[in-house]
Amino acid sequence: MKITNSILLVLIFFCSCFNSEKKPKKTERTVSIDQLLGKWEVDAAKRDGHITESVNGAAFSISENGQIITNLLGTEQTFNYDLKDTILNTSGFQNIIYEINSITDSTLELSTNIQSRHFLFNLSRSE
Length: 127
Hints:
Strand order of the largest sheet: 1-3-4-5-6-7-8-9
Radius of gyration: 23 Å
Number of domains: 1
Helix content: 10-25%
Order of helices and strands: HHEEEEEEEEE
Strand content: over 45%
Low-confidence stretches: 8-27
């Protein structure tokens, strides 16, 4: 009985060691609407991990009134948007959810899924 208890204690110890490894904390990021305001143009894009030029030159004009005007889907369309942390949710003709991966004063990286395809957009600010 003592041997069984000893083995059990050793097993519990090893299991707890493996489970106690520190996982990196997810840092909370937020993006403000002020950072997004203005006109952005697509410089480069990837569709399902492969470079695509089909959306180069597409533009997003993001205004304070909660609207985005974009020609991303081929024709100029207006969408309403809502921003929460790093998620830009658009609604209108087609609802699209964008993840803001990074943003600086002059660059913006967005990722999204459109028609079951993953897109990554690199944009630059234009005025």
